[in-house]
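User: Can you write out an input/output pair for a complex, sequences first and structure second?

Assistant: Here is one pair. Inputs:
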Amino acid sequence: MLVDSHAHIDTSRFNADREAVINAAFEGGVTRIVDPGCDLASSEHALALAKAHPGAVFAGVGTHPHDASTYTDEVGMRYRELAQAPEVVAIGEFGLDYFRMLSPRDVQRAVFCAHLELARDCALPCIIHVRDSHDDVIELLRAHGKGLRGVFHCFSGDVQQAEECLTFDGFMLSFAGPLTRQGNALPEVARMAPLERILVETDSPYLVPQPLRARRNEPLFVKHVAEKLAEIRGMTFEEIAQVTSANAVRLFGLGEITR
Ligand SMILES: [Zn+2]
């Protein structure tokens, strides 16, 4: 049993074979998938997929920092409405991305704060994207994130940054394909993070784990991230699968959908 805590299965790269990809994941031992929206349209699509796979696919609603310029108060109102659905389990993904900087920094910061407010109003956890923006994310969370819960998705920082992230009690660190690659601090981070605060994800269709040669990542491949994590922590695959699944279920409230 595994939970892929972050997979964009709503994106067009799965248009040709989406149901086959979802079924392959379930047949391969993935029990649940969280699909975070990146803008209003993808949030709506993620929710539709969640409704079509009750209890197995869940949705987040939010605007990715790349698309922060498309966020308006009306979009925020729409997210509030969508978040009423029991299949919506998170606000996100949102965050700050100063690497690609596809939206201006001040716009990204304002939209980040608007999402924190959404998470508070909807009583949902946050799925946060951080890229070359650690200090600003920490600053804004300290100022506006009191009492919120969530995950730093596809964590990519060093041990000191991980320690800062973990000062926010309700937050977890999520590991993706980069954990399987050489030349980063992630194994060290994965060793020090408390067991009850780690998740695994694919970030499909991006970040294919090594040594896979696939050009597109998919939820089934989350097992490679879990295998690497088990190796690093000196645990069995089953133990890591059990712990990270329980963490995801607890954070996002991934129960059965009852109507
Ligand atoms: Zn993502």
